[in-house]
Amino acid sequence: METQCTPTQLEFHALGRREVIGKFDGGSITSDAGGLLLREAEKRTAIISGFAECFEDLRNPEAIEHTVTELVAQRIYGLALGYEDLNDHDDLRRDPLFAVLVGKEDPEGEKRVRAQDRGKATAGKSTLNRLELTPAEPTAAELRYKKIFMKPDKIDRLFVDVFLQAHAQAPEEIVLDVDATDDPLHGNQENRFFHGYYKNYCYLPLYIFCEEFLLCARLRPSNIDGSEGTLEELERIVGQIRDAWPSVKIIVRGDSGFCRDKIMTWCEAHGIDYPGFRY
User: Fold this and answer.
1) Do 75 and 51 contact (CB within 8 A), yes or no?
2) Which partner for 213 in 8, 54, 78, 163 could form a disulfide, CB atoms 3.0-4.6 Å apart?
3) Which residue among 123, 150, 177 closes a domain?
4) 53 with 139, same domain?
């Protein structure tokens, strides 16, 4: 009796002179192949690796399977591809593409130390959670389980460094746009307040841009004046820019919410124009 074999391809109606077939020999397949373009951008700019240097790792080097750079890259690529929740990474860690993006030389995870981790090349939600929740200045008790912590000052400088390094030479003039906007909340998060203008429970982050470059993103509660903290951020950013470009003309632009005497007085004292402030 002739054996009935499963076909290796399906044939469909042709499209003109073109054959239309379905085949199942593609090997490992991903729906996030566009992430390779992000990887190419990282290879040229090294922004993610620079960001990873803003963390300190106190783990035992002999017990590390996922470096800080790999963990940071995994989280950033996940966010960029639309995976906001850490829970998503319990499935994503099985995707060889994510292992390629992160830089794992064993993208199938076949050489993982623990048997239950084999086939999962990248980190799971619990490991990434420890990375995100460790405070800037952890206590001894926190360091028992969370041994990677961020350096906020280095992160702040990185945003401006990326902006500076993107220019082959100093421009004659730059415009710093300051703004605050709502970040709506849908749970009982810490420092959750209702904002009358936005008619929602939200945070009120502060942003400072120069063209398409983000120079500052500061998360804040919404029960404050929209300009709070702006002067301190401008002092830091302008100082760093002028260290690199002493002669650049700087203009600060914002809406009427930033028309505050202390901000304008500081701008005048440091030779900074602020024509964008509206009374």
Assistant:
1) no
2) 163
3) 150
4) yes
